[in-house]
Amino acid sequence: MLKDVVTHKEKRNGKKAEYLFYSILAAVVALVPLLFYLGDRRFSTLYLLFIGNVLFGIMIGWYSLHVIRNHSAERPGPLVRQGQIVTIAGTGCAVVLSIITVLLYCWFSGWQTGEPVLAGFPPGFRVQSMGGLIGLVVCDVAIGDISMGTFVNALTVFAEKRMRK
């Protein structure tokens, strides 16, 4: 009896590590287009942020397929829930990493000296503080990643289960 309890705790801790690993992996992969977006001083490549959302969705889909392959006998409900946990955790990691990235970008690009870094920003977003850039990036990452991750997770799980029948 005690051995079963220890085994259950080990499985639960293994799941948490798996969730954390795939969450951080999805967040880091989604961060790569943000680096290219910040590298373009004209800020005219807003589509790169949406490519980051698509990459995040691809990583969540990959995790969903991984879970389906390991737990093929389960119903779709628990599989969707596992993918949703990774989606939410990955979105949280992506928001934190994107804020840190934008702050580091502003710090190393001369923003602290009072120079307007956003001079090449589109007219609707041109501001004299970094709040406009952080707000834009955080909204895209938070809303786009959670939406894309949820959609891809549900689609992957239900499509794969439907294909097996």
Task: Provide tags for this entry.
elongated, disordered N terminus, 165 residues, 78% helix, single chain, mainly alpha
Estimated helix fraction: over 70%
Query: pLDDT average, as an integer?
Result: 80
Derived from helix and strand composition plus strand pairing, the structural class reads mainly alpha
How many domains make up the coordinates?
Answer: 1
Question: Secondary-structure map with pairings?
Answer:
Elements: H1 2-39, H2 47-70, H3 76-108, H4 131-164
Helix pairs in contact: 1-2, 1-3, 2-3, 2-4, 3-4
In words, what does this structure look like?
The protein is mostly helical and 165 residues long. It has one domain. It is 78% helix and 0% strand. The protein is built from four helices and no strands. The chain has helices at residues 2-39, 47-70, 76-108, 131-164. The model is unreliable at 1-6 (pLDDT under 50).
Give a nutshell description of this structure.
The chain has helices spanning 2-39, 47-70, 76-108, 131-164. It is mainly alpha-helical and 165 residues long.
